[in-house]
Design a protein that fits this description.
The chain has 223 residues and is an alpha+beta fold. The protein folds into two domains: 6-66; 73-216, Heat Shock Protein 90, CATH 3.30.565.10. The chain is 49% helix and 21% strand. The chain contains six helices and seven strands, in the order ααβαββαββααββ. β6 (198-204) and β7 (208-216) form a beta hairpin. Bound molecules: adenosine-5'-triphosphate and magnesium ion (MG).
Length: 223
C-alpha cells in the first residue's frame, strides 16, 4: 500500500474525527423530530438529517479511499453480486422511471474477488449512471465470460461524457456535480487494480456511456 503524505494523514485524521460529532448532530435532530411537532421545524430537521448523512457518506468514501482495508478474497458468483447490488438502486430507478435491464451470462464460474469491494465498485457505477439518466432512459448491466476474464459492463443512455473530460474522470476529487465528491470512479479504479483487473469507458455526448470492468478468473488478486 502507498504511504500517505503528511497532509494525507492529517486529512484522514480530520475526516475520522468528524464522524462522532456528525453522529451526535444526527441523533439530536432525530430526537427533536420525534418529540416536537411543527411543519417548518420538521422540514428543517429533515434537511439537517439528510445533509448530515451526505457529509457522513463523503467522509466514509474519503476514509475508504485514503486508508483501504485489507482485501477479503473468496470465490463468488459474479451474477449474484451484480443482482444483489442492482436491488440496492432498484427502488430509486423505478421512482425515476429508469429501467434497469440485466443480461447475465450463466456460464460464469465463481470468481476470486472481494464481495463488498466489488459491490461498492458496481454501486458507484450504478449511481453515476442514474445521475446521468433522464426519465424513460435505461441502464443495461451485462456480464460476460471473455477468454480468461469476466467482464461486467454498465451502459446508460444518459448525457454522455465529453472526450476532453474522459481523461479526468478517474482522478480523485474530479467532479462536475454540485453535490459530488469526485471519489466514485477513483475508488472503482482502485478496486479494479486491487483485483488485477481494469476499468474502461466508452462514451458519446448525447448517446450515453458504457463502463466495463474486467476481472481475471484466475486468482491473481492480492490477498
Ligand atoms: N455514467 C456517466 N455519465 C456521464 N458522466 C459520468 C458518468 N459517470 C461519471 N461521469 C462523470 O465523471 C465525473 C466523476 O465521477 P465520480 O463518480 O468519480 O464522481 P462524482 O459522481 O462526481 O461524485 P461521487 O461519486 O464522489 O459522489 C462525474 O462528475 C461526471 O461528470
Ligand atoms: Mg459518482
Amino acid at each position: 500500500m502507498e504511504r500517505l503524505s503528511a497532509l494525507g494523514e492529517m486529512a484522514s485524521t480530520v475526516a475520522h474525527e468528524t464522524k462522532n460529532p456528525l453522529n451526535s448532530i444526527r441523533v439530536a435532530a432525530s430526537y427533536l423530530k420525534k418529540n416536537f411537532q411543527g411543519e417548518i421545524l420538521s422540514e428543517f430537521l429533515s434537511i439537517i438529517e439528510e445533509e448530515v448523512m451526505r457529509l457522513n457518506d463523503i467522509t466514509t468514501n474519503f476514509l475508504g479511499f485514503s486508508k483501504p482495508a485489507p482485501l477479503d478474497i473468496k470465490e463468488w458468483a459474479i451474477n449474484d453480486i451484480v443482482k444483489s447490488t442492482v436491488e440496492l438502486i432498484r427502488q430509486e430507478a423505478t421512482d425515476r422511471n429508469i429501467e434497469v435491464v440485466l443480461l447475465m451470462d450463466e456460464n460464469i464460474f465463481p470468481v476470486p474477488c472481494d464481495y463488498s469491494r466489488l459491490r461498492q465498485a458496481l454501486l458507484n457505477l450504478f449511481i453515476n449512471a442514474m445521475d446521468a439518466s433522464n426519465e424513460g432512459d435505461a441502464i443495461t448491466v451485462t456480464t460476460e465470460l471473455v477468454n480468461e476474464d469476466v467482464t461486467i459492463s454498465v451502459r446508460d443512455t444518459g448525457t454522455g461524457i465529453d472526450q476532453e473530460e474522459v481523461e479526468n474522470i478517474f482522478k480523485p476529487f474530479y467532479t462536475t456535480k454540485t453535490r459530488g465528491s469526485g471519489l466514485g470512479l477513483a475508488i472503482v479504479d482502485r478496486i479494479m487494480k486491487e483485483h488485477e483487473g481494469s476499468i474502461s469507458v466508452d462514451s458519446a455526448v448525447g448517446t450515453g456511456t458504457t463502463f466495463t470492468l474486467e476481472i481475471p478468473m484466475r486468482n491473481h488478486a492480492k490477498v
